[in-house]
Design brief:
Elements: E1 6-10, H1 14-25, E2 29-33, H2 39-56, H3 62-71, E3 72-75, E4 86-89, H4 95-106, E5 114-117, H5 124-128, E6 138-143, E7 152-157, H6 163-175, E8 179-183, H7 191-207, H8 213-224, H9 230-237, H10 239-253, H11 262-269
Parallel strand pairs: 1-2, 1-4, 2-3, 4-5, 5-6, 7-8
Antiparallel strand pairs: 6-7
Helix pairs in contact: 1-2, 7-9, 7-10, 10-11
The structure holds acetoacetyl-coenzyme A (CAA) and nicotinamide-adenine-dinucleotide.
């Protein structure tokens, strides 16, 4: 079983940035790549802020942060992932974009490198078709938002995933301080099969005038002890991601009850994607 020393991350958004931070802090050489101008700079600035806060709160020493920083690099070319022992993809929840990227990655990395997707819902077996004979090295490694805080990594084997790949991925998740749990390769796996229809239903409740957003969220927070109400959580996840996940559920489970709520889709059409654009269900003026 070859050792993982270098972690490559594709996508410097909220998930990719979090995965890269946790990997570097855990002692792995880490390279995070994003194709879009500005994304890498924003990611670096967020790392600066979160790592400084960790020192202020006494959770890390300054020298631990300095060492993590030395292990962390940012790239605007995919080529920088050449030496990665695992590539973790965290770009938009679109199968074609992900497959195109994995085809390119396959031509770059060594024959032992694991190819992992942080997809929320898309079939791992389907994504693995992009890498042909390398499918035994392909796996789902599903982190949760915010990555530095959330304990879980859902580990999803595709039909062709090899036991060595699963073992190494589980070991990596543990080395990153996470708890890996298995789920089968079905639409939404476990987490989003259960969570996303609940979020979608909250949009229907709002659309149908059952209550205003603040009250829907307040009722679910105070009544069910959720840290965030479902509409606030949707903004936090990204409304675009929520729509993509519902589309995967509706198509994969072939059941209209999983269709994305029209109001949720309308907000996405208007560019109101949640925290990341400063406005979704709620407004976030600071962003
Ligand atoms: N990135 C990194 N760290 C963050 C963060 C972020 N975006 N937001 C909050 N934190 C950290 C804070 O720094 C703080 O850490 P310290 O204690 O070390 O300072 C800690 O989280 C608690 O933060 P706050 O005190 O500011 O706020 P809080 O107590 O309200 O907690 C929360 C914030 C952790 C986000 C909490 O509201 C929560 O757990 N919300 C639910 C999150 C959730 O359900 N995530 C799963 C989403 S579904 C998913 O990820 C899967 C998918 O495929 C869509
Ligand atoms: P995001 O919009 O915050 O970030 C996506 C990043 O990918 C952006 O920085 C974008 O510039 C970059 N990107 C897009 N296309 C690219 C390409 N072709 N090459 C390189 N970079 C590219 O999205 P996110 O919330 O981080 O979600 C990323 C993935 O993680 C999705 O598959 C999503 O379903 C999954 N996920 C999201 C959450 C969540 O709560 N947001 C939780 C778990 C999993």
């Amino acid at each position: 079983m070859s050792e993982i020393r270098t972690v490559g991350v594709i996508g410097a958004g909220q998930m990719g940035g979090g995965i890269a931070q946790v990997a570097a802090v855990a002692g792995f050489e880490t390279v995070v790549f994003d194709a879009f101008e500005g994304a890498v700079g924003k990611c670096r600035a967020l790392h600066d802020k979160l790592l400084a806060r960790a020192v202020d709160k006494g959770k890390m020493t300054q020298s631990e942060v300095d060492n993590a920083r030395k292990r962390l690099s940012y790239a605007s070319s995919l080529d920088a992932l050449r030496n990665a022992d695992i590539v973790i993809e965290a770009v938009v929840e679109d199968p074609q974009v992900k497959k195109d990227l994995f085809k390119q990655v396959l031509g770059l990395v060594s024959g032992h490198a694991i190819l992992a997707s942080n997809t929320s819902s898309i079939s791992i077996t389907e994504l693995a078709t992009a890498v042909g004979d390398a499918a035994p090295r392909f796996i789902g490694m599903h982190f949760f938002n915010p990555v530095p805080v959330m304990q879980l990594v859902e580990v999803i084997n595709g039909l062709a995933t090899g036991p060595d790949t699963t073992e190494r991925t589980i070991a990596l998740a543990r080395a990153m301080g996470k708890t890996p749990l298995p789920a089968n390769d079905r639409p939404g796996f476990v987490s989003n099969r259960v969570l996303m229809p609940m979020i979608n239903e909250a949009f229907y409740a709002w659309m149908e005038g059952v209550a205003e957003p603040e009250d829907i969220d307040g009722i679910m927070k105070l009544g069910c002890n959720f840290p965030m109400g479902p509409l606030r959580l949707a903004d936090f996840i990204g409304l675009d991601t929520c729509v993509h996940i519902m589309e995967v559920l509706a198509e994969g489970l072939n059941n209209p009850r999983y269709r994305a709520c029209p109001l949720l889709k309308q907000l996405v059409t208007a560019g109101r994607l949640g925290d990341k654009t400063g406005r979704g269900v709620y407004e976030y003026p600071a962003k």
